[in-house]
Design brief:
Alpha-Beta Plaits; SH3 type barrels; four-stranded antiparallel beta sheet; elongated; binds zinc ion
């Protein structure tokens, strides 16, 4: 008999679906949700998906993520969708959009960039050059980053 693993639905909170397979933990890192959180977290990795082949899903209970907080995850999970759940009902659903600029998430690949300075480093800042494929340019030294998951 085939056993299906069903993820328990949540009553209140946020469900981030259609995360690029293998990126769920990076999504949590970008959102600033660490293992020290009090929130009940469910992380499901490599779920079979008709559209994506495989995907990850993150559920955060009792926390309603705001679109502008979540857009940052488009860096590594451009197809992600966010469902906000209240009293077991989906009250809002949106997809993520790559912001025009990203501060403090991407590490510059240039060791001499002032965002990598050992003394008084400035917060990194990248400008989105293209969305597909995603490319970002360092605001300070103009270095281009393409494989962004290696630099977060
Ligand atoms: Zn730089």
């Amino acid at each position: 008999m085939k056993k299906e693993l069903k993820v328990v639905p949540i009553t209140n909170g946020s469900v981030i679906d259609h995360i690029t397979a293998g990126q769920a933990l990076n999504v949590l890192r970008i959102l600033g949700i660490t293992t020290k959180t009090d929130a009940v977290l469910s992380v499901v990795i490599n779920v079979p998906s008709k559209v994506m082949g495989r995907k990850d899903i993150v559920k955060v209970e009792e926390l309603e993520l705001k679109p502008d907080e979540v857009d940052k995850i488009a860096l590594i999970a451009p197809n992600a969708t966010i469902n906000i759940i209240r009293d077991s009902e989906v009250i809002a659903k949106h997809r993520v959009y790559l912001p025009g600029s990203i501060e403090g998430i991407i590490r510059c690949a240039n060791p001499n960039c002032i965002s990598n300075a050992k003394r008084e480093p400035v917060i990194s800042k990248f400008v989105t050059v293209s969305e597909d494929p995603p490319r970002f340019r360092c605001f300070y030294c103009e270095r281009i980053i393409e494989e962004v998951s290696g630099y977060i």
